[in-house]
UniProtKB/TrEMBL annotation, chains A, B, C, D:
Binding annotation for diphosphate: G10
Annotated pathway: Carbohydrate degradation; glycolysis; D-glyceraldehyde 3-phosphate and glycerone phosphate from D-glucose: step 3/4
Binding positions for substrate per the UniProt entry: T124, I125, D126, R161, M168, G169, R170, E221, R272, Y278, I279, Q280, R281
Active site: D126 (proton acceptor)
Family indicated by similarity: Belongs to the phosphofructokinase type A (PFKA) family. Mixed-substrate PFK group III subfamily.
Protein name (Swiss-Prot/TrEMBL): Pyrophosphate--fructose 6-phosphate 1-phosphotransferase
Source organism of the structure: Melioribacter roseus (strain DSM 23840 / JCM 17771 / VKM B-2668 / P3M-2)
């Protein structure tokens, strides 16, 4: 068989580990592999690259993806599905391995229903994908955020400051909770648990009262206010400095900066914000993510070899298993509230 | 209740995370916690320390254990069990949280059968403890080893060398397999799969033949020869340079050095060995190990609070669960051979 | 003698190395050392701490400062100088070691002229202090920024993006130039070389034209537009999205965000900004900064011992030397333009 | 001109930074650059590679050398100098940039006297090359060793152990002294200061007596005993377990292991050794080494462009300057004893 492989959506440490594993295992299984550049766009535009042993040499420890990526959605392009089928046929591509998140796998799932032979590999920094215990890239992001919190701790302590750290997580707070626990956060704000700023300030004030004159607040970019319409109880907070969109997300400046300003105003403690941003998703993957990516890639290659399409390789406990593509998409995996309770043990 | 807490066996990144979590959660549960210094020795010698919020402040990111550790075995001391009971009584200690590996938990299990209220927390760098999916410290060790392999890769490539890396793992090859997969090893030798040096050299020679004139060999300290009595087929290998003990372990110099010498002799390729040693078990834990240690500690504190003794906190899939102490000890958890097959995909 | 020691201004990796060295050496020289908390504020408010061998144990690898810090200026407090003298007398403090930047050493210099026995140790993340080749903390900041740029590179490449990285440097571009060279930046913008956005966009566009469809722009927080009144040539830039203060610094959002927006608008290439912020000044110092801090501290202790006050310990080539405090302050050390030319070799 | 460039001797982080800088600057200066593979061997065997902008893309952060390296000495090959000249002529190579240490630059110096146009760039992990303040690669090695010592500290403390760390430095103790100061070593043993084991044990014993029951001993691989013929005072040490070669270097097992065994025997304290080995010279260079390598490469390219041959680019204070090749070789730069005195401040 001739297998096409692509990476879609935001980049994520471990993508190259998956690509390498799919290629290596598929060659051993007696197939050919061709790289499709820049996600679904590449198959729509016939943009391919050779993937032999030389092409994958030395890529395991590197961040990013040698295939490039994009957010192109086949179903938002006119006759997208037909074009994919035609271009696969023209290029002699028998089947696809699609590595990506909610969107990329959603397309994969639809294509499969439309008759395209496709196997998926789940990918998201945010770890919010259903049907897999953890996604690669997440461990790297959590370690980068934790190291940043470690660094901010010393500054907070030296200056008697409150430090607010904004981490990734638009819809789920996995990075915030893991990095917050690992970094010893005093407050963690996540989309799953809308917050009240007065309660946050209360925790900080009590902490200072017992002699700890610095605090670390970790906040997901998608964290939201508890009160209705995202307006704080006295109505002043949102109106004065915060602009939110229809989903309650801060539009300008980021929630980290907005919260820091408000905490300083309300508590009187010097407060500073740091928005970690893109450094969380770049660079060399951790060992965990390299191993997970490699295992998923080998498993996906074997699914293809056995002709088991319409599935995604997923981590369950210690094992890699196959789950139906349609189960993987549609619903977000939000933070386990038992885990959040563990984090709360250390608040204040 | 007054809870005594101790750490036994080799040190391991994440011990302080567990201690902090047990103390913090137990105080919230309304109990007192007292630190027992240097493992079981501390309770035999009445060597205690105060563990309040101040004592655990700032310890989360630190390696080692603020309690100190030792390999003292209660049951190798005359009237050990009686002394433990008497000293607990004298110090007003109602129950124990014992953090350790096979040996420490073995003592805990026996003490429980003898009537001592005890809860265990599993700990081993080597990840070879039964009844828990992963142990804290392991992820840190794997990352340190992986980073070392990354570094050795560039030297191997620049000099056309074979680099042999000896990692921890006396009875199980978990570190070798994970770091080997993550570091892109060309050969991985583990205790679970006795090896034949000619086969190893064959892989390396074939690799060179296809233009890759460097190789990385990762070897567990407990790796063993395949042939009988640890003598290589032609009888020359062991006799010339290797001295093994009753268990087949190399006594002097380490297996890494011995293998490197033999590979150079047999293949003619320049070969160098690096023994990673103690740097694998020291220093700041990864985020994974901090989160795991914290979750185990909180869970153990709750077991104590609920009066559920004789159990150990364990990781199963994404959850922390209670398993009986006796199930945790007695049998090693060796490397999953499915995982080793994934690693083999990349050999040569 | 009884020596008082304090740290002032922003925190900086290596401060604890200096404190440890001053204490250790001074004790060996037969003196006592007392810690003054939170910079000059501590001597004004009689806020002291004991500094014996126990107090400095284990602090070498830690970021921040065990003494705390503040920006309190003795000469902005009524009768500040008199209070310092009186409080020193009351506490039996014979002389001071002041560790800090422009402001802290400026106060030290005035106090010395006023009759106080004081020795200085230069400190600034920004490396913009005169009379010393390099300051500790700078190497750590540059390494953190470089690692971030390395990470952003993989994202830029995977997404065909321009990544703008804002680093510290309000008045001098040392961090930007060093991290930019080390990270392989395609453009570096510093306060010493006001920039023209069209030229910046031109470099990026030409880079894309030769097949490199990603770019890294490193910008000091204090970088300024070339054209008059900080308005870009066509007048549109500043007015539309940029608010600058009297010194030409962007007031809101940071220059990184503003530039990223403009580059995207002008070139059509997807552009993202990352503001590194406080993570650059926290956490464990590099070996270079620990060695430099230690050497400066030992030297300062010896200056005190020899009664040579009014001096600062400084790095000149490979040596630590004494320079007069008054020479150290008053004029900034801006980026060597030869070094910037080296950086320019790699632009585009 | 057509410029040939080569890297010789042991690999060293920063080599790729130099290569990239020489190529980039020389292209801008209007010349061509050709890569000579595996040091001097490549020019003897006509083993070349193309070096254009593509070839150097992305190599800045990578360890090793894309050119490969060897220890081949032109003057140990029959008619070596003639062959070099002939092969240069045949390949149209006008001049050489040789990056290497004592041996490589020694050959460069002789070739220059023989009429070959050559410019040198100094390289050694060990920092023991004359006529330059620091060499690239050294800072990376020191940071790796320091991080290892940090890790060993926590193990030493948890187990009440003496940890012996063997670092690189056959003839000079630069790495040991810098990493020892940065890591807070209690004893540092270097080739420049032959040691007495009884004195070493005395320091450790006194440390324990004052309540510090762990110690870190950093030892250069080339450290030597103080007493005559490398036999310890009572004659027992060397005879029992140490075999030294004519230069006093330990032949088997490494000095770290030998010393650890003796310290345990003499003091009764549990002692363990770690030999860092090759991880010190591999992997991604620090920012310092990338900047230094880049500056040296740009400078060397300009020397070539100006026709100033027979020189080496060197770091003096903050500047890069030209020094005659003959001054660079012949004499080792040993550890500054003032610096060692700084280190001694923290012994015990």
């Amino acid at each position: 068989m001739k297998i096409g492989i692509l990476t879609g959506g935001g980049d994520c440490p471990g993508l190259n580990a998956v690509i390498r594993a799919v290629v290596r295992k598929s060659l051993q299984n007696g197939h050919d592999v061709i790289g499709i550049r820049e996600g679904w766009r590449g198959i729509l535009e016939n943009n391919f690259m050779t993937l032999d042993l030389d092409a994958i040499s030395g890529i395991l420890p590197r961040g990013g993806t040698i295939l490039g990526t994009s957010r192109t959605n086949v179903y938002k392009v006119e006759n997208g599905e037909e074009k994919v089928k035609q271009n696969m046929k023209d290029a002699g591509i028998d089947c696809l391995v699609a590595i990506g998140g909610e969107d990329t796998l959603g397309v994969a799932s639809k294509l499969y229903k439309g008759g395209v032979k496709v196997v998926g590999v789940p990918k998201t920094i945010d770890n919010d994908l259903n049907a897999t215990d953890y996604t690669f890239g997440f461990d790297t992001a959590v370690n980068i955020a934790t190291e940043a919190i470690d660094r901010l701790h010393t500054t907070a302590e030296a200056h008697n400051r409150v430090m607010v750290v904004e981490v990734m997580g638009r819809h789920a707070g996995w990075i915030a909770v893991h990095a917050g626990i690992a970094g010893g956060a005093d407050v963690i704000l996540i989309p799953e648990k809308p917050f009240d700023l007065d309660e946050v300030c209360d925790v900080i004030t009590k902490r200072h009262a017992r002699g700890k004159n610095f605090s670390i607040v970790v906040v997901s970019e998608g964290a939201k206010l508890k009160t209705e319409n995202n307006v704080d109880k006295d109505g002043s907070f949102v109106l004065s400095s915060m602009e939110v969109d229809a989903f309650g997300h801060v539009k300008l400046g980021g929630i980290g900066n907005v919260i820091a300003e408000e905490i300083e105003k309300r508590t009187g403690f010097e407060t500073r914000a740091t928005v970690l941003g893109y450094i969380q998703r770049g660079g060399s993957p951790t060992a965990f993510d390299r191993v997970l990516g490699t295992r998923l890639g080998v498993f996906a290659a074997d699914l293809v070899d056995k002709g088991e399409f319409g599935y995604m390789a997923a981590l369950k406990g210690k094992d890699i298993v196959a789950v139906k593509l349609e189960e993987a998409v549609g619903e977000l995996k939000t933070v386990d509230l038992e885990l959040y309770k563990v984090a709360e043990t250390f608040f204040g």
